[in-house]
Specification:
The protein has helices spanning 10-16, 21-30, 34-43, 83-95, 111-120, 129-136, 146-158, 172-180, 190-202, 207-210, 212-222, 243-261, 279-289, 310-323, 343-364, 369-381, 385-391, 395-404, 421-429; strands spanning 46-47, 62-63, 69-74, 100-103, 124-127, 163-166, 225-228, 266-270, 295-298, 328-330. With 437 residues, the protein is α/β, with parallel strands linked by helices. The protein folds into two domains: 52-364, TIM Barrel, CATH 3.20.20.540; 369-429, no CATH class. It has an eight-stranded parallel β-barrel, surrounded by eight helices. Helix 13 (279-289) links the parallel strand 8 (266-270) and strand 9. Helix 1 (10-16) packs across helix 3 (34-43) and helix 7 (146-158) runs parallel beside helix 11.
């Protein structure tokens, strides 16, 4: 029997005791027994985004107890509409080890690029259907109907995307709350701001919230994971952990519960800009309010004053978040807040996010995480440069730096030369004498 006919979603399969191919492959990638991962997926503590139409997918699971995954954002815009350039970014993202790619295209006919992305990418694919609702119907924002918002979601599910960001947690009540108590940076979520404006202009309720059962029907029908967007994520340190952010998180927790009742997998999205001392408490708060659903964070960006270096501010926050249980980090590039990222920006952002994810895995004791570091340390002790390059997060950069400044002594580098501590201690322990002159 075709296994796809026995269950609607990966969560339902796990609850029925069916070990799907996606589950088995994701468990092997994680280095854990398949039943262990099945228990996490069945409970909702891990998600396995795998649209049955995404044939090229290399499945992977997202959850606090698993290795921390990273996502890369890309896509065309009105000012940068070169889909070939974006597809080159896709290739780089996969090459550098991204686990997911979110297509945030917001201009023109997005469907050809989205379908090409699903066909080509081995990484999970995510989208924000609200962007498409705004551009695909050729209407003014206020003239969009609730059906338009839902139909955009349906189209993305039919195109094979594995997860969708849906801003179902921002409601008419949120609109009034924000109107009554101004935040320093308002709403910085693009999808959240579109729904905020639509509700304010039409005086209607958020269709994704009001018709959440239909959202679940669409996701269940195509095995699409719901990434519950944080429309009220803080866009500044001043706005972090305020009433709007926490109130939305409470509502998202209820939506997680409703989704699980329908066997629809969920991820919850989180901050945002946030002072370093608030991150741990926010991770714990999400786990408690959202029933330990996998937490997907942007950063957090720990200071507002570093444009051009936000891949660093994000990696600092991402490390703390991952160590405390965040499951999924959205990469941030040096171009954040400034422009559409270039290939070089993307490389910097991906590497910084992977460093943060791995550092978090080391801190929370993820199985096998330490082995990578131990292999690198052994290669350093042995001054085995080729092995060091092969183990590096960015082998190309490590190799380029070494080649740019060649030492006189090949078993050292130009930093220390004959005074290399590792080289000299190795020789002494082997019974040799050393001369550093």
């Amino acid at each position: 029997m075709n296994e796809s006919r026995q269950y609607a979603t990966q969560m339902e399969a796990a609850r029925l005791g069916i070990e799907t191919e996606a589950l088995t492959r994701a468990a092997a990638r994680e280095g854990i027994p398949t039943p262990e991962l099945a228990a996490l997926v069945a409970s909702g503590r891990a998600a396995l985004p795998a649209n049955r139409l995404h044939a090229s997918l290399e499945p992977r699971a997202v959850g606090r107890a698993l290795s921390t995954k990273i996502n890369v954002n890309l896509g065309t815009s009105a000012d940068a509409s070169d889909s070939d350039a974006e597809m080159e970014k896709v290739r780089l993202a996969v090459e550098l080890g991204a686990d997911a790619i979110m297509d945030l295209s917001s201009s023109g006919d997005t469907r050809p690029f989205r379908r090409a992305l699903v066909a080509a990418s081995t990484a999970m694919i995510g989208t924000v259907p609200a962007y498409d609702a705004v551009i695909r119907y050729g209407k003014r924002l206020r003239d969009l109907s609730p059906d338009d918002w839902l139909n955009a979601l349906r189209a993305h599910a039919e195109d094979g995307v594995d997860f969708v960001t849906i801003h179902a947690g921002i409601t008419r009540e949120t609109v009034e709350r924000i109107r009554g108590k101004r935040r320093l940076t308002g709403i910085v979520s693009r999808g959240g701001s579109l729904l905020f404006a639509w509700m304010a202009m039409t005086e209607r309720e958020n269709p994704y919230y009001e018709r959440f059962d239909e959202v679940l029907d669409i996701c269940r029908g195509h095995d699409v994971t719901l990434s519950l967007g944080d429309a009220c994520r803080p866009g500044s340190i001043a706005d972090s952990t305020d009433a709007a952010q926490v109130g939305e998180l409470v509502l998202l927790g209820d939506l997680v519960r409703r989704a699980r009742e329908r066997d629809v997998q969920t991820i919850v999205e989180g901050p945002g800009h946030m002072s370093l001392d608030e991150i741990e408490a926010n991770m714990d708060l999400e786990r408690r309010l959202c029933h330990d659903a996998p937490f997907y964070v942007l950063g957090p960006i720990v200071t507002d004053v570093a444009p051009g270096y936000d891949h660093i501010t994000s990696a600092i926050g991402g490390t703390v978040a991952a160590a405390r249980g965040a499951a999924f980090l959205c990469y941030v590039t040096p171009a954040e807040h400034l422009r559409l990222p270039t290939l070089d920006d993307m490389r910097e952002g991906i590497v910084a996010s992977r460093i943060a994810a791995h550092a978090g895995d080391l801190a929370k004791g993820i199985r096998g995480a330490r082995d990578w570091d131990d292999r690198m340390s052994k290669a350093r002790r042995e001054l085995d440069w080729e092995t060091m390059f092969s183990l590096a997060i960015d082998p190309e950069k490590a190799r380029r730096y070494r080649a740019s400044s060649r030492p006189t002594e090949e078993d050292s580098c130009t930093m220390c030369g004959k005074m290399c501590a590792v080289r000299n201690v190795n020789r002494i322990l082997e019974g040799e004498e050393i001369d550093v002159n």
